[in-house]
Amino acid sequence: MSSNFKNLYTSNNPPIEVILKRGSHLESIHKVHAVVCDKKGRVLMCAGNPEYKSFIRSALKPFQAIPFVSSGASSKINEPLKSIALASGSHRGSMLHAREAFKILWEFDIDIKYLKCPIKGNSPLNHYCSGKHAAFLATCKKLNWPLNTYLKGEHPLQIEIFRIISDLLNIPASDIFAERDDCGAPTLYLKLVEIANLYSILSSSENAELEQISRAISSNPVLISDNNYFDTEIIKASHGKIISKGGAEGILCLGKLRDGIGLALKVEDGSKRAKHAVGLHLIKQLDWITNIRIQDIEEKIFSLPEGVNLEVKGELKFQES
User: Fold this and answer.
1) Could you tell me what percentage of the chain is helix, strand and coil, using 3-state DSSP and rounding each to the nearest 5?
2) Do residues 128 and 90 make contact, with C-beta atoms less than 8 angstroms apart?
3) pLDDT band for position 13 (50/70/90)?
4) Calpha distance 121→77 (Å, rounded)
5) Where are the alpha helices (H) located in the chain, listed in sequence order?
6) Is the pLDDT of residue 102 over 80?
7) Could you give the 3-state DSSP secondary structure of residue 266?
8) In the prediction, which pLDDT does 66 show?
9) 186-191 vs 242-247, strand pairing mode
10) In this model, does residue 7 exceed pLDDT 90?
């Protein structure tokens, strides 16, 4: 870690804390690292350690969808932006979501048996990663790549995704480490500032494929998660000006479209309630969404028992030279 980052972490910018109180008594504390950066990867604001490393988990999905777009596979599908959005999201497995995932397979005449995401409910189509997996398979069919092994690290699709991330972040592919995510696909181990940088690039509209992906996300919020869930409600409340994508174990990423500003946060203990509380707290600090809309989102996503309250302490601070 550079001395400047170390200085920020140890003195100027402690991590944000989320405090859960039961009545008047403290019960739990969650520590959260957050960073805002521009499309050149420069840290603009942070709290805690911007070089904190974590798996990006499902926040990688918009970037895993790039080959689906660049290969031309998505354009073969009726209403391609819907398919791109579903591939970029972590949907809740509704009939709408399952139909959209099936549509991708149908257009490419791919049997559902090739879907390697876990079965949820009656079918793998109901799994929250089925859009990503269906897009993986469509890309492989379009490029004549094997369907059976599409999740393997040595598969051409996964090698291409590695190359894309390497190019976007301007770091050697050999420096990027991957492990198996819960759905079976590789997920990447990155610095928080690198994750924020990816979302700043996604939000900048300068890359043709990513511009299409960000437009798909902003115009189809229900396909990213679902009504009354954080990512969807953020996109709706901002009228498509903010994109939001969470990941497991306390990962949350936001991008301000056209401004090329990305925000990434990580809760040390992986708490979902803490990442959502801090996400709303920072959106309020950055004035990205009105307070009235933030209050509306809070009412939809938090269901704390009577007498239990969450309190967020700390904020983003500008980087000091």
Assistant:
1) 45, 20, 35
2) yes
3) confident
4) 26
5) 3-7, 61-64, 66-70, 80-88, 95-107, 130-142, 156-169, 192-202, 208-219, 221-224, 230-237, 272-286, 291-301
6) yes
7) strand
8) 98
9) unpaired
10) no
Pick the CATH number of 3-318 from 3.40.50, 1.10.510, 1.10.3470, 3.40.710: 3.40.710
Neighbours of 293 (CB within 10 A): 17
Distance CA 183, CA 116 (A): 8
Among 227, 259, 262, 258, CA closest to 244: 262
Please report the pLDDT score of residue 155 as a whole number. 98
| Domain residue spans of the chain | 3-318
DSSP per residue, 34-48: EEEEETT--EEEEES
Confidence of residue 157 (pLDDT cuts 50, 70, 90): very high
For residue 11, the model assigns a pLDDT of 36
At 255, which amino acid appears? G
Residue 3 has pLDDT above 90, yes or no: no
What is the rounded CA–CA span in Å between residue 265 and residue 259? 19
Task: Return the SS3 of 18.
Answer: strand
54 vs 321, which has greater pLDDT?
54
Instruction: Report, as an integer, the average pLDDT of 237-256.
Output: 97
Predicted TM-score (pTM) of this structure = 0.94
- Looking up tokens 């391609």 gives 80
With H, G, I as helix, E, B as strand and everything else as coil, classify residue 191: strand
Closest CA to 261 of 320, 208, 202, 190: 202
Of 3-7, 224-228, 266-270, the poorest mean pLDDT is in 3-7
Q: Give SS3 for 10.
A: helix
Q: Which long-range contacts (CB under 8 A, 24 or more apart) does 161-169 make?
A: 161/63, 161/64, 161/66, 161/67, 161/186, 164/63, 164/66, 164/67, 165/63, 165/198, 168/63, 168/197, 168/198, 168/201, 168/207, 169/41, 169/194, 169/197, 169/198
C-alpha span between 39 and 51 (Å, rounded): 16
Q: Are 302 and 309 in contact (CB under 8 A)?
A: no
